[in-house]
Design goal:
single chain; 402 residues; alpha/beta; FAD/NAD(P)-binding domain; 2 domains; 5-stranded parallel β-sheet; globular
Length: 402
């Protein structure tokens, strides 16, 4: 009898956690495990705003997959997924094809521009290591151009950030740390460089209570961040964003869109029913109507039975889904019933720069300022430990013992 083959697509938080848990739960005799990822490294998606601002080096935000997954136990394939053909249990890659008995679809997110005119062509996106590095380099290039006299347009020193959600606010928090450094480096008066956040909704950071949001907004404003709240972006041009009912042009040297994500486009290409960019999965995280395909992380909507709404897509949700899928696949292999996924929400913390933040943890304990910033580092390190294990934590952790 052939061993069942379990194929995991994507080595983000969900996919890498699923792979590592499967390797722990199943012996080589019980199942063959295959992990397919575009790159040979995993990156901390929740750290990308720091890479984009230049407050951490891009290498700190990533580690080699082979460092945390034993290639003797898990077959590692570095290739791009083109399509999943569920009718014959096959994954089409750019350079080959792979058959599966069980599939874990965890290909992560791409940016969703919601059809805003010009956004695709004229804005930068924080969606992977390379795109984050390009933003950092572009911002510094604009400062260097202005400093050298090659550019005399002060708007080149403006960084415009569309979206007041988690990524957008954490990004402007890092920019509030970085921009003064760039001004000093290039001998540019700080008041000439601007950081502007534009949000169509009436408030930023919708996952937090009003008092924490008010603290975050004031903290960022005190460090030079400007907010345009309740200002919808109708278009992104080469010069900047066109916002509001009066079609005001806000000019900037760097325009970054952080206003939304959706699951991998491979979902649609594979014929899965997609709702607002993701698949609504069953309570056990399977594709509806499927016995052997699981969809997790940023590619799925997982419903909270109490509220009837999907859980917000976070790193902790993705890692918990990855662990749950590994347990369910083991159950399936032995003919045991699959269990429904229940999210254990450990709270939410947002950074507002290196030494500031807000948080809501442990059933309503609120944090702000340095305690929140410290907790954010704890959360980041815990994720490293859960997803990559002790080796990843020792190499890349934000709290160093020495």
């Amino acid at each position: 009898m052939n061993k069942p083959k379990i194929v995991v697509l994507g080595a983000g938080y969900a996919g890498l956690t699923a792979t590592r848990k499967l390797a722990q739960k199943l012996s080589p005799e019980e199942a063959e495990i295959v992990l397919i990822n575009k790159h040979n490294y995993h990156y901390e998606a929740t750290w990308l705003h720091e890479v984009a601002a230049g407050t951490i080096n891009h290498n700190q935000a990533r580690y080699m997959i082979s460092d945390v997954v034993n290639p003797k136990r898990v077959r590692l394939i570095y290739d791009t997924v083109v399509e999943v053909k569920t009718e014959d249990q096959r994954v089409v890659l750019e350079n080959s094809e792979v058959e599966y008995d069980y599939l874990v679809f965890a290909l992560g997110f791409v940016t969703n521009t919601f059809g805003i005119k010009g956004m695709e062509d004229n804005a930068f996106f924080i969606q992977d290591i390379d795109s984050a590095r390009i933003i950092r380099e572009h911002i510094e290039y604009k400062f260097a151009q202005y400093s050298s006299g090659e550019s005399t347009d002060e708007s080149d020193l403006t960084v415009l950030v569309g979206g007041g959600g988690f990524t957008g606010i954490e990004f402007v928090g890092e920019l509030a740390e970085k921009i003064p450094e760039l001004c000093k480096k290039y001998d540019i008066p700080r008041n000439k460089a601007r950081i502007i956040n534009v949000e169509a909704a009436p408030s930023i950071l919708p996952v937090f209570e009003e008092d924490l949001v008010a603290y975050a907004k004031k903290s960022l404003e005190d460090r030079g961040v400007e907010f345009r709240i309740g200002a919808a972006i109708s278009e992104c041009t080469e010069e900047g964003f066109i916002v509001g009912e009066d079609n005001e042009l806000i000019k900037a040297g760097t325009s970054v869109w952080t206003g939304g994500v959706m699951g991998s486009p491979v979902l649609g290409k594979s014929g899965f029913e997609v709702f607002r960019g993701k698949v609504n999965v069953d309570a056990d995280l399977r594709l509806p109507g499927s016995e052997n395909v699981f969809i997790i992380g940023d590619c799925s909507w997982t419903m909270d039975k109490e509220t009837g709404k999907p859980y917000p897509p976070t790193g902790q949700l993705a890692t918990q889904e990855g662990a749950h899928v590994a347990a369910n696949i083991k159950n399936a292999l032995y003919g045991l019933p699959l269990t429904d996924f229940v999210f254990d929400n450990k709270g939410t913390v947002a950074s507002l720069g290196i030494s500031d933040g807000i948080g809501n943890i442990l059933n309503g304990v609120k944090l702000q300022g340095k305690p929140a910033a410290a907790m954010k580092k704890v959360v980041d390190d815990r994720t490293l430990l859960v997803v990559g294990g002790p080796k990843a934590l020792l190499k890349k952790g934000k709290y160093r013992p020495f």
